[in-house]
Amino acid sequence: MLLIERGLLAPEEVFESIRKQIEAIVWSLFYWQDGEVTFGVGALEEEEMVQIQLPIKRVIVQGIKSAPDAKPLVSRLGSKETVLEPCYEVEDLVETGIDKEAYELLRRVNGSSTLYRLCGEGALPPAEAAKLLYAFQVLKLVRRRDLEKSESGPLKIKLGTSGDRMTQ
């Protein structure tokens, strides 16, 4: 508050700086390999508290996008041959805060394109696309195509004919 009192910064600049610092801390939590958190019990000093409001879906997207390395996230999606399918309603996207390029990537998830293809053929760099696809999976906007589910559908048998007999 000394910066405001001395006229070095406007209240808005102080708030924005604190908000950015808090966001940076929150984003960094997404790429911890392990950690420990300690909570203290006691009254909060409301005078010193700065509150920021962030929709949780946006926090998840931004946190995953800010991860420095896409490899650990991509490994959670599966192999490069993994196929993702959409499982969202348009209303689910509002709080994510995704931009046009991210939305185009999400729209390309169709249940038949592989992870390799989704990451390699769009406007986004492959690592950024992979991080977004992982965020979409965390938010349950996409899911891995369940091979067991497709196998439990109609049974397909290839039949051939030999003269007047059917063969399998």
For the secondary structure, the number of strands is 4
What proportion of the residues is helical, as a percent range? 40-55%
Give the helices and strands as they follow along the chain.
HHHHEHHHEHEE
Low-confidence segments, given as residue ranges, are 148-152
Please identify the structural class as seen in this structure.
mainly alpha
Major sheet: size, sense and barrel closure? 2 strands, antiparallel
Q: Please tell me the overall pLDDT.
A: 82
**Percentage of residues in strands:** 5-15%
Could you give the order of strands across the largest sheet? 1-2
Radius of gyration, whole Å:
24 Å
Describe this structure in words.
By secondary structure, this protein is mainly alpha-helical. It has 8 helices and 4 strands, in the order ααααβαααβαββ. It has helices at residues 2-5, 11-28, 56-65, 71-77, 100-108, 115-120, 126-138, 147-151; strands at residues 84-86, 142-144, 160-162, 165-167. The chain has a domain at 67-146. Residues 148-152 have low confidence and may be disordered. The longest helix is centred in the first third of the chain and has 18 residues, at 11-28. Strand 3 (160-162) and strand 4 form a beta hairpin. The strands form 2 sheets. Strands 1-2 form a two-stranded antiparallel ribbon. The radius of gyration is 24 Å and the shape is elongated.
In short:
The chain has helices spanning 2-5, 11-28, 56-65, 71-77, 100-108, 115-120, 126-138, 147-151, and strands spanning 84-86, 142-144, 160-162, 165-167. It is mostly helical. The chain has a domain at 67-146.
